[in-house]
Amino acid sequence: MTHRVGFRCDAGVASGVGHLMRCVALAEELCGRGAEVLFLGDVAGSAWAESQLRQRAFPLCPAPSEPRALAELVRVLGLDAVVLDSYVLAPGTGAALRAAGTAVLAIVDGDPLGQEADLYLDQNLGAELRPFRHSGQAADGPWGGRLAGARYVLLRDSVLLMRGTARRRPARPEGPLVLCFFGGTDSAGVAPAWAGALRATGLPFRATVVSPVSFEVDGPVTVIPPTDRLPGLMAEANLVITAAGSAVWELLHLGVPTALSWVADNQLIGYEALVGGGLAAGLGPAPDAAAVGVLARLLADPAAREEYGRRGAGLIDGRGRERVADALLALL
Fold first, then answer.
1. Considering the entire predicted model, what is its pTM?
2. How far is the C-alpha of 276 from the C-alpha of 243, rounded, in Å?
3. What is the spatial distance between Cα 113 and Cα 99, in angstroms, rounded to a whole number?
4. Looking at residue 167, what is its pLDDT?
5. pLDDT digits 0-9 by tens, 101-148
6. DSSP letter at 169?
7. 169 lies in the same domain as 233
8. Residue 137 has what pLDDT?
9. What burial letters (b/e) apply to 113-150, b meaning 16+ CB within 10 Å?
C-alpha cells in the first residue's frame, strides 16, 4: 500500500525557510520508502525556496488557514498523514485533522503551541531532558508521543552525501575561509552587519556571505545569492557564522567550526544549548564589540576553531530522519 503524506508548512522572506528544509528532509526519506508526498502551504518571495520543491518534484498545493477547511482538503487529497511545521497555524489544526481520521506529526521547538498531534518531534539539542510544555490547552489533553533530541534531527540528502567527501581547506596566509549565512532568506536582514563585524576584527580572512539582497562591503568578501552549493561551502569553510536555526544541525553533522548568533526568540533555546555545551562559539544577538572580539579570537586561533568542530562532529549521526519516518509510518 502506498501511503500519502502531506506537509503543512510555509516559507518566504518573512518566515524564512527552516521549516521547509526540515520537512524536505523527511519528505526525501519517505519518498525513498515509496510514499507519495505533497506540500500544503505558501512558498513565495524566495525563488530559492520555491526551487527546492520544484527540483524534487514535490507538488505544492495552497492550503486554507481554517482547520476544518484544511481537514476537508486533506480528505479530498486522500492523505493518510499530515506533518505540521509552523508557529502560526491555528491551534485547532491538529485536532481537526485527527477528528477527521488523519494521523498528525507536529514538528515543534519546545512548546507545541496548543497543537494536538499523534506524535511530536522536537529535534533541539537536549529536548529529551526538558519537560514537554503545553500552552493553550490543559496539560492532561490528548497529547501524543514525543521524539526528542539530536537522535531525530532531519537532514537533507545533499548534506548526508557531503559528509566524508569534502575536506576543509587549510587556512592560507591570506586568512581562514569564512562562510556567513542566515537561512535561505536572511529574514532579519543581518548579513551585511556581520560582514562588517568580520572587517572590524582587523585580521586577515576570506569570506563568502550568502544574502538574497546584494550589498557591497570592503575587503575580501564575496556576496552570493542563496545557493544549492551551501552544503559544499559549509564543508570547505574554516569557520561558519550563522544563526541558531535548522542549519546548525547540518554544520554539526559535518563537523564544521561554527560561531552562532540568534535572530528570533525561538532560536534562543538552541543557541543556549549549543554554546553552553561548548559545541559552538557564542556571538550574542548583535555584531557588537563583544562579538567582534569573539570573531577575532577565532580568526587568529586555528586550534580554538577546530576544537568547536571536533566537539560537534558525531553528535548528529544523520539517521534521525529514518527514525522519524519509522515512527510516522507506524501510525498508519
1. 0.92
2. 15
3. 19
4. 58
5. 999 999 998 889 889 999 999 998 888 988 876 654 444 455 679 999
6. P
7. yes
8. 47
9. bbbbbbbbbbbbbbbeeeebebeebeeeeebbebbbbb
Q: How many domains does the chain have?
A: 2
Q: What pLDDT is stored for residue 246 in this prediction?
A: 87
Distances (CA, A) of 175 to 170, 241, 300: 9, 15, 9
C-beta separation of 81 from 5 below 8 A: yes
Number of H helices, E strands in the chain: 12, 15
Q: 135 with 171, same domain?
A: no
| Residue 146 grid cell | 514525543
The predicted-structure confidence for 157-184, as pLDDT tens digits, reads as follows 999 998 765 556 666 778 999 999 998 8
- Pair (139, 172) in one structural domain: no
- Please answer whether residues 93 and 73 qualify as being in contact, where contact means their C-beta atoms are separated by less than 8 angstroms: no
Co-location of 211 and 259 in the same domain: yes
Q: What is the pLDDT of residue 313?
A: 80
Distance CA 83, CA 70 (A): 13
Place of cell 557588537: 288
30/54 same-domain check = yes
Q: Which portions of the chain are predicted below pLDDT 50?
A: 136-140
Specify the DSSP class assigned to residue 129. Answer: G
Shared-domain flag, residues 136 and 166: no
Same domain, 192 and 255: yes
Residue 163: what residue type?
R
What CATH code is carried by the domain that includes residue 106? Answer: 3.40.50.11190
What does residue 125 show for φ and ψ, rounded to 5 degrees?
A: -60, 130
Q: Please, which residues have CB within 8 angstroms of residue 81's CB and are 6 or more apart in sequence?
A: 3, 4, 5, 6, 102, 103, 104, 105, 328, 331, 332
- C-alpha distances out from residue 118 to 18, 103, 219, Å: 23, 6, 52
Residue 240: give the domain boundaries.
160-312
